[in-house]
Amino acid sequence: MVAFQGIKEFYGKIKAVLTQLPPNFLQIHQSYVINQDYVIEYTYERVKMFNGDELNISRRYRNQVRNQIIDNRRSQG
Known about the structure:
CATH 2.40.50.1020; alpha+beta; DNA binding; two-stranded antiparallel ribbon; 7 strands; 2 helices; about 30% strand
């Protein structure tokens, strides 16, 4: 896990943690959950994070990611 405090190891199941996170957290890959507040750019296949990291959005999650981004933007006004 990458956080402001540094990199931390995590051995639990992402699906279990994801249900406890606020709606601005989004799973983009089997191994990646991101906080949308720290995304500076979305493309169809990638996200660019505020810290410069570029992460792939797996094919499995692309439609889900796109729909959740749209829903979150609508709810924010």
